[in-house]
Each structure stands twice: as C-alpha cells, then as structure tokens.
Design brief:
The chain is α/β, with parallel strands linked by helices. It has 3 domains: 26-184 and 283-402, Vaccinia Virus protein VP39 (Rossmann fold); 187-279, no CATH class; 407-516 and 520-525, Trna Endonuclease, Chain: A, domain 1 (3-Layer(aba) Sandwich), CATH 3.40.1350. It is built from 13 helices and 27 strands. It has helices spanning 54-65, 89-110, 126-137, 187-190, 246-254, 275-278, 290-293, 296-306, 318-328, 344-351, 364-378, 423-434, 466-476; strands spanning 25-27, 33-34, 47-51, 69-74, 111-121, 142-149, 165-172, 183-184, 204-208, 225-226, 233-234, 258-259, 270-274, 281-282, 287-288, 334-337, 355-360, 396-402, 407-409, 415-417, 437-438, 449-450, 455-459, 463-464, 481-486, 488-489, 499-503. The strands form 7 sheets. Strands 1, 2, 3, 4, 5, 6, 7, 15, 16, 17 and 18 form an 11-stranded mixed β-sheet that branches. It has a 5-stranded mixed β-sheet with strand order 21-22-23-25-27, sandwiched between helices. Helix 1 packs parallel to helix 2 (89-110), helix 2 (89-110) packs parallel to helix 3 (126-137) and helix 9 packs across helix 10. The longest helix has 22 residues, at 89-110. Its EC number is 2.1.1.72.
C-alpha cells in the first residue's frame, strides 16, 4: 500500500447517498412547555424537542446551527441480529452502516471546531463504526474508546461470554482544538485528604519522598536527612533514593512541606501535597465503572419513575450523560441528541445549564420525553442527578414537528407545492432550500430572506408581469440583488440585471428527494435491499419544462 492509499470501509450501497430535503420546523404550542416563572437568571427557555425522522431533522438544523454545537451524544440502534428478521447478515450490516454514515456527516458539520461526538455502541458494530468514523472525522480526530460498565450481574445463561460493558467512541471535530474538562474527584478520591496538623493551606495528603532510581544512577540523591526529633540522619535505600536534591529538600523544609508521620521517631519523611494546589479535578480516564457513571439498572429505575406503565426498554442513566457533559461542555453550551430515546440527554443537559436539541421519531417523543421534561422543568423530578446539582426546576422547551414535504403529487400526477404550506411557510422553506436566512422585513414586502446585506429573496405564487418586475428592479436598485421565486413571469429576464427569476416548482424539483418522510434506522420501515446496486432508471420527461418566461 502506497503512502497515498488509505484503508476504507466498504459495504453494499455505500455510493448511494440520500438527497435530503431541508424541511422547516413547525411548533406545536400545546406540547411546548415552560416554567411559570424564572427560578434563576441562568434559566434556558429556547431548548428544542423535534418529533420526526432524525436524518431529516439534522438536515433541518444544519442551516441555522452548523459550526455551533459543542457536544453531540447519540445512542443509536445497536444493530443486533434480532432487530433484522427480514434481512440476511451482510445486507443488514450494509444498511446500518449507510444510514449511520449519512447522519455522521451532518453531525460533523454541526459541530463547533472545539466540539466533540460521543457514540454508545456494543461489540456488534463498534469496530466497523470506528473505521467509518475515521473516514468521516479523520483518523487523527479519534480521541478515545471509553469502556462503560453497563451492568454488574453476570449473565450465566450467556452462550459465550457475559457482556458487562458498552463502548463510547469519542471523536473531536478538531483534536488539536478540543480539550476535555477535568472531572471532579469522588468521595473515595478525596478520602486520602485531611488536615490533621491544622495547616492553614487546607486539606493535604502525604506522598512518597523517594523516586525509582538507584544510588549508582543518582548519587546526588543519596544523602542523609536529619530527623527533626531525634537528630538521626535518615538515608533512603540503595535502590530507591530521595526524589529531591539537598537544595530542593532544604526549600521543602523552609516551606513546611515535610511530614514525618504520627510516629515521628520511626517514620521517614513524606511530602505534603495540598488539594488546593493539585485541584479537585482529574484528567478523565477511559474506564468508567457503574458507581461513577451509572448502569442499566439505574437507567431502568429512572425510566420507571416517569412512565411505570410503559417503561422505555433501553434508557441510559443520568450519571453517564452527566459525566459526558461535564467533560465535553460548559454551562450555556449547545448539546444535540438525535436519538433521544427516553430523553435522558435533554433532562441532564437541562439540569446542568446546557442548551439542548433532541430529536425522536417514535411516539415516545410525546408519551415519555414530554412528561419527563415537564417534571424536570417543574422541579418535581428529584431523581437521577437532581440532588447532586441541587436542581430546583426552571426553563423550558419548544416542541416541533417536521413540516411535510414541500412538493406533493396532485391527482393528475403533477408535482405541485403542498397544500399544507401557507405563504409564510413557503417563503421559509424556499429560503432554507436556497441557503438564505429567513427574515421577513416588516416594511419591505420583497425582503423575505437574505444571504448577505445586499442579496435578498422574494417568494410569490403569483404570475409577475413586466410592469411589476420593472418596479421591483427599481426598488432593489444598484448594488443589491434579488432572487425571485414565483409561479410564472412574463417578459425577458435579462431586462432586469439585479433580478434573478425562477419558476416554482420547476426550479426546485430536482434539488431533493421529495415526499420521503422516513430514513429511520428501524429496518422494518426500510424497503428490501438489493443484492447489487440497482441500475438508474431511464430519464423521464418532466411536467415542468424550462425556466424561461411563461
């Protein structure tokens, strides 16, 4: 293999990529929820819960949030054999990889330069997923594979080995920029610190005063230290000398850093290490035990508290998400979970003062997530991490549905603008499709969106006459430009150089896959896969030919 070659993961259908429609979001105020009053000045009210296909939702978020997300956590379907009864092993694997790849590419674009992605997965796909993430994020941006102890009890009826862990793959958008936050020491890690001599510098613990060098290697570190009580010279061993030379030792004595132990006549010197100097935080490690990150039983108990009649089957514990968000984010940062499940990510992010966006396709978006978050906001949820962060409630979220596809087929088989779109929705959708920011002016009717300070977009379902176009061109003036999306227009578009005229739906029909509402990872919703990629269909004549004047 040459230096220019690189290993790539291949699968059936890898070359097939969806042409996603960037949908708009429609709020359902009846399902949005906000606290009646502010609890603190840091309350966050603009969190977002989206009910709909998560690939379409990620595409919908891309225009407004690209490069802004500090942390993405996803807990995708693990692609276990039992989930794919209608597919053989090779095909199920390929479908799963393709659907994950499409999501990861958008997630990467959403992440800030100092952002990170955390993916929980088991052994079934972890190593294939790792190689695919290397392709999407770059192998140099792989940070770590965290091993999380998801259960304690052994599965004695396991056919091979009893599985006790899951993987958490961690990638940075840019590893050179991303740095983890320290994790707080737990009670066991603080247990060694005390202040038995009432040192004004606070809690401390003593550490060894020797180093792993021999007298022959470091003769200058083999010397006698006078015992302060007996006057005896205390020497290190021949195979493990003092860790500091005589001058440094003398400075330690002057600074009151030498501890001779409770039995001052027998003990050797040790060095005081103060908590305020080393800090209460530790560099995160890659082995997360259940006592510090929770396990499946913790998660089930938490889920049971919100819906005992229909317990969500595969939740993640709040302690696990708390640890991830502590490492990856700070207060006010934006967190996304596009496989929301039972809503743990949003619940934890809310309690920790992070902004959040969650996406969930299933009905449990309404039956599980909404009531759970309502309890969080009310402050009545005192489970999970609530007591640890002293959660009192506050804030809120808005509930959105994905808009229907912009184009639909009428009874004569023609592609037309969906009847479910009003004028404002149409303008917003076309802004998103064309890469404009939807920002309708209160005073200038044709300024419905902009791509810069001088480039605007105007949408109308009317047929524009030459007189109207001339008036628009004069209003736009020199140094500005206007993209007009209309049903039709009359006249020669070249007469108005500051106007760009396009007919809808002619102009947009080839941009996306219209009417495709489900790209989910639930294989039951997918069509039967082909053994070989199907040949492209023959070209068909269009119902909307040309984009010249009507």
């Amino acid at each position: 293999m040459t230096k220019k070659q690189k290993l790539e993961l291949t699968w059936v259908g890898k070359e097939n990529r969806p042409r996603l429609e960037p949908r708009i979001l429609i709020e359902d105020p009846a399902k949005s929820y906000h606290a009646a009053a502010r609890v603190t000045d840091a309350d966050i009210f603009d969190n977002v819960l989206i009910h709909g296909d998560n690939l379409l939702a990620l595409k919908a978020l891309e225009a407004d949030h690209a490069g802004q997300v500090k942390c993405v956590f996803i807990d995708p379907p693990y692609n276990t054999g039992s989930a794919f009864t209608h597919y053989d092993d090779g095909l199920e694997h390929s479908i799963w990889l393709g659907l994950m790849r499409d999501r990861l590419e958008i997630i990467r674009r959403l992440l800030a330069e100092d952002g990170s992605l955390w993916i929980t997965i088991d052994d079934n796909e972890a190593h294939y997923l790792k190689v695919m993430c290397d392709e999407v994020f770059g192998r140099a941006n792989f940070v770590s594979n965290v091993v999380w102890q998801k259960k304690y009890s052994k599965q004695n009826d396991a056919k091979w080995l009893s599985t006790s862990h899951d993987h958490i793959l961690l990638y940075a958008k840019n590893k050179e920029t991303w740095r983890p936050n320290a994790v707080e020491r737990n009670a066991d890690q603080l247990k060694g610190y005390s202040n038995i001599d009432n040192d004004p510098r606070g809690l401390w613990q003593s550490v060894v005063y020797t180093c792993a060098k021999t007298r022959a290697e470091r003769p200058n570190l083999y010397y006698g230290i006078e015992h302060p009580r007996t006057g005896e010279l205390i020497y290190p061993s021949e195979t493990r000398v003092w860790g500091y030379d005589p001058n440094r030792h003398a400075q330690h004595v002057r600074d009151g850093l030498i501890w001779w132990g409770k039995n001052q006549e027998k003990d050797k010197p040790r060095l005081k290490s103060f908590l305020q100097k080393v800090g209460t935080g530790l560099v995160p490690d890659t082995l997360w035990f259940r006592d510090e990150a929770g396990d499946n039983q913790d998660a089930k108990r938490e889920a049971l508290a919100f819906n005992s009649a229909d317990v969500f089957p595969t939740p993640k514990p709040e302690k696990l998400l708390s640890k991830i968000l502590q490492i990856a984010t700070n207060a006010g940062d934006l967190v996304i979970d596009s496989f929301a499940g039972s809503g743990t990510t949003g619940a934890v992010a809310h309690k920790m003062g992070r902004r959040w966006i969650m996406v969930e396709l299933g009905d449990h978006c309404t039956t599980h997530i909404v009531p759970r978050l309502a309890k969080v906001i009310d402050g009545s949820d005192q489970g999970g991490i609530s007591k640890a962060v002293d959660w009192k409630g506050g804030g809120g979220f808005r509930f959105y549905e994905l808009a229907p596809s912009l184009l639909e087929t009428d009874k004569w088989g023609r592609e037309v603008i969906s009847s479910k779109y009003d004028a404002a929705m149409l303008a917003q959708a076309l802004c998103k499709l064309e890469g404009f920011t939807y920002a309708p002016s209160d005073s200038v009717y044709w300024q419905q969106g902009h791509s810069s300070e001088s480039d605007f977009l105007y949408v109308t379902t009317q047929t524009l006459e030459p007189e109207e176009l001339a008036a628009l061109s004069e209003e736009v003036g020199e140094g500005r430009s206007l993209l007009i999306l209309c049903a039709a227009f009359r006249g020669n578009a070249d007469f108005w150089p500051n106007l760009t005229l396009r007919k809808i739906p002619n102009h947009i029909r080839s941009k996306c896959e219209w009417g495709h509402d489900d790209y989910s990872l639930n294989v039951a919703n997918l069509p039967m896969a082909e053994r070989e990629p199907a040949p492209p269909p023959p070209a068909q004549s269009s119902l909307f030919d040309g984009e010249d004047a009507a």
